[in-house]
Amino acid sequence: MLFRDRDHAAQQLAAALSTYQGKHPLVLAVPRGAVPMGRIIADALGGELDVVLVRKLPAPFNPEFAIGSVDESGDTYIADYAASAGGTPEYIEQEKQRQLATIRRRRAEYTPLHLPIDPAGRIVIVVDDGLATGATMISALHGLRSRNPARLVCAVPVAPQDTLERVGQYADEVVCLETPYNFQAVGQFYRDFPQVEDAEVVRILRRD
């Protein structure tokens, strides 16, 4: 399937998640691209929207390739191939601190008037616009699990099958619309895939 845009993908995901309609799920979107999608899904399910702040740790000399990720608490996921991709302990620590600074800036900008919504005892649906390595999603799910959600769901429009298998170890349920064989990048499965700016994220979150 080629999605028209993120709105189209979100509408399809909301339909696939309809079992949670009326159960007031907490929809946590991975900024920035998934935030407009999270808004659509939360509205369709009668849920609540917030962001889950995680950042990938890019490989040296290849910023698009994740060798790990870090969440808001500082908890870090390191992929088993990180060392072979040049991720020395020193590099990883330096990159972790750089990404944590971005996370702190985004939290202050996105939700200045409230702390992250507590997922304890909630149905939590973590949304992204697609997965490549899955590192960022794994970090998000791992961090959320320690905060005792009642059910932890990963929901994405598209991802490779091997990535879903890795991610599935950290979630109670994985909802993915498409698992294409010829996967190169998330953007190839969208006709329109513009960058989402911080200003749009702030505008969407302030609706709540």
Keyphrases for this structure?
208 residues; alpha/beta; Ybab, Chain: A; 2 domains
Q: What is the CATH third-level topology name of the largest domain? A: Rossmann fold
State the major sheet: 5 strands, parallel
Instruction: Provide the structure class.
Output: alpha/beta
The strands making up the biggest β-sheet line up spatially as 2-1-6-7-8
Q: What's the helical proportion of residues?
A: 25-40%
- Average per-residue pLDDT, rounded, comes to 93
Straight-line distance between termini: 32 Å
Strand content: 15-25%
The H-and-E topology, N to C, reads as HEHEEEEHEHEHEH
Shape descriptor reads globular
Main CATH class of the largest domain: Alpha Beta
Count of domains: 2
Number of strands: 8
Unreliable spans are none
CATH architecture of the largest domain: 3-Layer(aba) Sandwich
Describe this structure in words.
- This protein has 208 residues and is of the alpha/beta class.
- It has 2 domains: 6-54 and 118-205, Rossmann fold, CATH 3.40.50.2020; 56-109, PRTase-like (Ybab, Chain: A, 2-Layer Sandwich).
- The protein is 34% helix and 22% strand.
- The protein has helices spanning 6-16, 35-45, 89-110, 135-145, 161-167, 198-205; strands at residues 26-29, 48-51, 54-59, 62-71, 76-78, 123-127, 151-158, 173-178.
- The protein has a 5-stranded parallel beta sheet with strand order 2-1-6-7-8, sandwiched between helices. The protein has a 3-stranded antiparallel beta sheet with strand order 3-4-5.
- Strand 4 and strand 5 form a beta hairpin.
- Helix 1 (6-16) runs parallel beside helix 2.
- The longest helix has 22 residues, at 89-110.
- The chain is globular and about 45 Å long.
- It starts with 5 loop residues before the first helix and ends with a helix.
- This is Phosphoribosyltransferase.
- Residues 8-190 form the Phosphoribosyltransferase domain.
- InterPro entries: PRTase-like (IPR029057), PRTase_dom (IPR000836).
- Keywords: Glycosyltransferase, Transferase.
- It holds the Pfam family Pribosyltran.
